[in-house]
Amino acid sequence: MPATILVGLQWGDEGKGRVADWLAAESDVVARSSGGDNAGHTVYANDIVFKLHQMPSGILHQRVTCVLGNGVVLNPVNLLREMEELIANGVEVTPERVVISTRAHIITPAHIALDKASEQARGGGAIGTTLRGIGPAYMDKTGRRGLRAGLMADPEAFADALYQHIEAANVTLAAEGGETLDPHASATAYVDAAARLKPFLKDTSLYINSRLKTGGRVLCEGAQGTMLDIDHGDYPFVTSSSPTAGGALTGLGFGPLQVDRVVGVAKAFSTRVGSGPMPTELEGELAARLRGTGENFWDEFGTTTGRPRRCGWLDTVLLRYTTQVNGCTELVLTKLDVLSGFEALKIAYAFDVDGERVEFPPTTVAELERAQPIYQTLPGWQEDLSAVRRWGDLPDATRAYIERVAELCQTPIRTVSVGPEREQLVHL
Ligand code: GDP
Ligand code: IMO
Ligand code: MG
Q1: Are 204 and 330 found together in one domain?
Q2: Model confidence at 71, in pLDDT bands (50, 70, 90)?
Q3: Catalytic pick from 28, 37, 41, 234?
Q4: Which residues have C-beta atoms less than 6 Å from ligand 1?
Q5: Which residues contact 264 (CB under 8 A, 6 or more apart)?
Q6: pTM of the full predicted structure?
Q7: Tens digit of pLDDT for each residue in 174-225?
Q8: Which residue owns the Cα nearest ligand 2 atom 20?
Q9: Are residue 151 and residue 211 in the same domain, yes or no?
């Protein structure tokens, strides 16, 4: 099995981190191909809750080498902090285990200030970004004025480029009514971090291809979700990268014929953090039950920002679409345990858009906002699933729910999860 791509099929937070942790056990390389520290991937291992933002979840497996590919945007200060936290928890983080693409782009303090200014300027129409500077960093990349990670190999040149970049950004910040930055003061921590990250830099495309040539198994750990994709998501309420299977190839620099498995991760219900349409969104008691109170680390509060997540019924109109966009060979359905105790469960299988019945989501936000989900109601189950490890031990109603989702998505579900712990997986 040369390369496996793992992608989120909803609006992020599907449980990609825990699924990547499972697949990492049979991988040699685990790579991030897009996004930055807007991601928050939770892995519960050895009684520790790890919240990974930039580091691939494979870091928790000693034999795995982790790659931050050319498609990611990198905040050097936050990455270093994350590395230090991992080291404090007994994880080995060395240049032998972590490689960073010289072609990745740097998120600067100016990008963070621009993200904030842009959100403020949008007022009620704000995207609800994570305020990590993601959009502005990708804008500089496509505008061909970005700072690539390779610059960190020469700390002096990096510092000069960073000062110039902040000075230029100050003009835009002032025009947008944002606070301008002192180039030297705001860059100091970045310049220090860059010097410390220098040993980790590499041509990661060459590295991954060399590992593939010698039989290495590569896992691409997707971030965000397909409904947040810059092209395929509900634009403009999206992130600025391509978190799809196609994006994994450009974001890492290897060819499509290396990939023989595309694993799509979906939560057994819908969640979204930030603005934008969400046809199956619930309010009131049902939403609160899906969200949880926040007492448990797996309750629906943002891993990166702590914001309560919007919750709703499972939407297989979107899933049918996102499964197809990624060419998923199999699905993983997470958080089934959270559905225990509901009298009945609803699944959206089509939309009514202006009186017309559709099986795939419309392409504009305005239509998606008008889309009325058409639901099928299935019987719920009362049993606690957290100790179940075998398909045959799942309640009949749970099995019926899983089978119906697979049928509606026209893709096999091979694994479901019934709790956040490593072993709380059921393979079908
Ligand atoms: P990611 O961004 O896709 O990696 O997902 P997050 O880590 O942001 O959010 C998923 C949350 O659900 C995390 O707190 C996980 O620990 C938790 N989680 C994952 N799978 C399950 C599951 O099967 N049951 C429960 N109860 N929690 C889960
Ligand atoms: P993981 O990898 C959930 C959302 C933000 C916002 C939009 C744009 O943990 O699944 P950005 O900061 O990227 O410009 O914000 O995208 N968003 C996520 N939502 N999980 C994520 O990552 C997300 N990354 C970005 O909430 O709506
Ligand atoms: Mg997350």
Answers
A1: no
A2: very high
A3: 41
A4: 8, 12-18, 40-42, 44, 297-298, 303, 334-335, 337-338, 417-420
A5: 7, 8, 9, 322, 323, 326, 328, 330, 331, 332, 411
A6: 0.97
A7: 998 888 999 999 999 999 999 999 999 999 999 999 999 999 999 999 999 9
A8: 12
A9: no
